[in-house]
Design brief:
- There is one protein chain.
- This protein is mostly helical.
- The protein contains four helices and two strands.
- α3 packs across α4.
- The protein is globular.
């Protein structure tokens, strides 16, 4: 998604959130490849305070990722998972269905 990495590097949550919302909208409206659960998860992530969220994968299922601050990530993950289980009457998973990940600085190669 053009501009997302730059927005994240600048810590510009508003811009990143807008790009993620656009991505989710395009998946729902243009690709028409989302199921009710991925649509709900993206919306619920924003309702719980994520800067943005979008589904990914092959479509008609898959996964959703959300952009949240590092300090609030664990609490967000617990609330997101619990709210999904309550609304969708999902059985408790073996292990966590929601994973908290911190992006790395990436790999850099010197051209000199």
């Amino acid at each position: 998604m053009p501009g997302l990495a730059d927005a994240i590097m600048r810590a510009d949550a508003a811009s990143a959130g807008a790009l993620l919302s656009r991505s989710q909208a395009m998946a729902e409206e243009a690709l028409e490849n989302q199921v009710s659960q991925t649509v709900w998860l993206a919306g619920q992530a924003r309702a719980l305070g994520a800067a943005g969220a979008t589904a990914f994968g092959a479509g008609f299922g898959g996964a959703v990722w959300a952009l949240v601050t590092h300090g609030g990530a664990e609490k967000f993950a617990r609330e997101w998972e619990a709210s999904y289980a309550a609304v969708h009457r999902a059985r408790p998973s073996r292990g966590r269905a929601v994973r908290v990940m911190t992006p790395s600085a990436g790999v850099w190669r010197s051209l000199s």
